[in-house]
């Protein structure tokens, strides 16, 4: 898709990845509807862009039914004005590094909702207001393809998001709407606290800057590539895990003491 003058709805816009994606989209000539919970952060992001008057913000808590309805009504109103959204980027999400036994029911439900149910519901909503041709891009994670200790809920949600994206893209074949999936590896954002960053360094896990992820967002949209995993060797491990999961299990088993050490650090043990 050519992004010049396209209208793009970006959730999680005020986060580390969201900010860089917004900048990269603007550089391509897109007009943005920036969605997040914090109005001050959204205003600051809009003001930081080169042409702030071309973009709009929408304060909405997507973890609530009211927030989702607010997005839907805003997009329907834009559609009625002849300003349909061309691209929906489901970027909002969260994770918690913890043993499953240490999680609360509420935290598990919220994480599943933000990382899986919200993108599903927004995608469903988009079918009534997105342009044709149009694109839905779901931002997942390498952990959607590799089950990793300490991230059981996050892995489950992102794995579901990958299969949802694949199924919806096939379901909408011929409709003019594509559903794409992008899986970053570890990224240098506030989503990962200093202990997680220390663990990744100890394990030799590489991470990318939000700018790198934003470059991939632009590229996958322009090429309309169905799915993409970012980074070596993570993308290879993701494929190996589907064919020979014991190979990946044995590799992670060698890291178990280090992983457990940092999880316990998070919980003050």
Q: Uncertain runs with pLDDT below 50, 5 residues or more?
A: none
CATH A-level architecture:
3-Layer(aba) Sandwich
The CATH H-level superfamily is NAD(P)-binding Rossmann-like Domain
Question: Whole-Å distance between the termini?
Answer: 50 Å
Mean pLDDT over all positions: 94
How many domain units?
Answer: 1
Would you give the CATH topology?
Rossmann fold
How large is the share of residues in beta strands? Answer: 15-25%
Radius of gyration: 18 Å
Reported for the largest beta sheet, the result is: 7 strands, parallel
Question: Any idea of the CATH class?
Answer: Alpha Beta
User: How would you write the strand order of the largest sheet?
Assistant: 3-2-1-4-5-6-7
Helical region count? 10
Shape: globular
Percentage of residues assigned to helices: 40-55%
The total beta strand count reads: 7
N-to-C series of helices and strands: EHEHEHEHEHEHHEHHH
Pfam family, one: adh_short
Family: Belongs to the short-chain dehydrogenases/reductases (SDR) family.
Protein name: SDR family oxidoreductase
Keywords: Oxidoreductase
Structure summarized in a few sentences:
Belongs to the short-chain dehydrogenases/reductases (SDR) family. The protein has 269 residues and is an alpha/beta fold.
Attribute tags:
alpha/beta, 269 residues, NAD(P)-bd_dom_sf, Rossmann fold, 15% strand, SDR_fam, oxidoreductase, 10 helices, oxidoreductase activity, SDR family oxidoreductase, 7-stranded parallel sheet
């Amino acid at each position: 898709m050519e992004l010049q003058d396209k209208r793009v709805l970006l959730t999680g816009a005020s986060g580390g990845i969201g900010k860089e994606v917004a900048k990269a989209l603007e550089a391509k000539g897109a007009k943005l509807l920036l969605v997040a919970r914090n109005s001050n952060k959204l205003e600051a992001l809009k003001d930081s862009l080169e042409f702030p008057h071309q973009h709009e913000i929408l304060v909405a808590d997507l973890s609530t039914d009211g927030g989702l309805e607010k997005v839907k009504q805003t997009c329907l109103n834009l559609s009625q004005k002849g300003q349909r959204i061309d691209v929906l980027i489901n970027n909002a999400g969260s994770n918690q590094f913890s043993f499953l036994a240490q999680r609360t029911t509420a935290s598990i439900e919220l994480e599943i909702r933000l990382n899986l149910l919200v993108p599903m519901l927004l995608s469903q909503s988009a079918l009534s207001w997105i342009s044709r041709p149009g694109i839905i891009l779901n931002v997942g994670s390498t952990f959607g393809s590799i089950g990793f200790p300490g991230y059981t809920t996050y892995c489950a949600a992102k794995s579901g998001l990958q299969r949802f994206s694949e199924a919806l893209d096939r379901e909408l074949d011929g409709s003019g709407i594509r559903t794409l999936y992008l899986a970053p590896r570890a990224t240098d954002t506030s989503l990962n606290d200093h202990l997680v960053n220390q663990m990744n360094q100890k394990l030799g896990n590489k991470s990318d800057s939000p700018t790198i992820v934003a470059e991939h967002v632009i590229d996958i949209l322009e090429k309309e590539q169905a799915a993409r995993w970012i980074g070596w060797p993570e993308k290879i491990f993701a494929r190996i895990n589907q064919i020979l999961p014991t190979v990946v299990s044995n590799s992670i088993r060698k890291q178990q003491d280090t992983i457990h050490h940092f999880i316990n650090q998070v919980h003050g043990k």
